[in-house]
Amino acid sequence: MLAAAAQEQDGRGGSWRCRSGTHTPDDNLPAMSTDTAAKQLWICSSCGFIYDPDEGDPDGGIPSGTNFDDIPDTWFCPVCGARKADFEPLNG
After folding, report:
1. Which of 18, 38, 49, 57 is most exposed, with minimal Cβ within 10 Å?
2. pLDDT value at position 28?
């Protein structure tokens, strides 16, 4: 009910006062997931392909959501054919 809130800027440009209190522009944004800190990306040292567990490698038989450690050792890079052992953690 934004129209009924009778908002006015507080003069500092960073928050708004309405009948229910003072709000910042970020008050209505959804909370960010903390799961992103746990996700580890892996990069192929031969070609630079990045394995993202959220995407997996469906064409290579690896479903989305598969952690790199759970991929069989027989898996290979979908771009250049490098072995799983040729991937390194991507620090970011």
Report:
1. 38
2. 58
